[in-house]
Amino acid sequence: MYLLESKQQEDKEYQRYQKVIIMYKARELGIDVEGRSASELKRQVEQEFLMQAAKRFNLKTKGKKIDELKKEVHDAIIVEKAIQLGIETENKKPNELAKEVHEKNIKQKAEQLGLNISGKSIVTLEDELITMEVEKEAEQLGIKRQGKSIKQLIEAVHEAKLYHTAEKLGILIINKNANEILEEIIVNHATEAKKLNLYPFNNGKFYSIFHYKFE
Questions:
Q1: Which of 197, 192, 199, 193 is closest to 137 using CA atoms?
Q2: Which residue from 6, 36, 72, 128 lies 20 to 30 Å from 82 (Cα-Cα)?
Q3: Taking the model in full, what pTM does it have?
Q4: pLDDT at 124
Q5: Which pLDDT tens digit goes with each residue over 126-148?
Q6: Listed residue (59, 81, 84) closest to 70, CA to CA
Q7: 205-206 and 201-202 as β-strands: parallel, antiparallel, unpaired?
Q8: Long-range contacts of range 21-30, CB-CB < 8 Å, 24 or more positions apart?
Q9: Residue 102 to residues 99, 118, 156: CA-CA distances in angstroms?
């Protein structure tokens, strides 16, 4: 029963987190978020992203179903990333190429951080990278792991960084949980937070360590 309740709570938390991200993306695309449901915003954000991406890759959109266009955009993005990473793209299926891009990204990051990649699976390397990043952030914030699971440590780091941003921006945090503070930052203070390079932004882009909790 406890495990079921815990899973349900995590699902609700994830849905709330995703809603905030969608609101941010909508605002970035100039979409009015007032009074709009998360599903409605998600659909419009996706459509606007696809139209912009299709234009960038010179893809025809007339007469195409959304799923068809989505696949074409996804494949074009994968090819672009593969070329950037020096991966040969000719005669390769999109799924095969996507796998190569993902694996090379992980291995490159692991090597840059000094991790030994010999004999390790991509899943293991991903876990080690997440743990290393979260533990480094925690150390910088003076948070001790002390028996915390990696998910608990991610929560602690995420909340501490949000509280720091709220303090810098003068946001009231009384009776607000982490998701509510995140929403307040995204909806009402994103421009200022970006300018000051405050969490959840990094060099002008949205970056939240919290998504690691759901991987």
A1: 199
A2: 128
A3: 0.80
A4: 94
A5: 999 999 999 999 999 999 988 88
A6: 59
A7: antiparallel
A8: 21/186, 21/206, 21/208, 23/183, 23/186, 23/187, 24/186, 24/190, 24/206, 25/49, 27/186, 27/187, 27/190
A9: 5, 17, 28
Please state, in angstroms and rounded to a whole number, the distance separating the CA atoms of residues 193 and 27.
Answer: 15
Answer whether 213's CB lies under 8 Å from 154's CB.
Answer: yes
The helix or strand, by DSSP H or E, that contains position 206, with its residue range, turns out to be: strand 205-206
| Three-class SS state of 201 | strand
Q: Is the peptide bond before 200 cis (omega within 30 degrees of 0)?
A: yes
Residue linked to tokens 């948070």: 143
Residue type, 30: G
For residue 132, how many other CB atoms are within 10 A of its CB? 15
Give yes or no for residue 5 having a pLDDT over 50. Answer: no
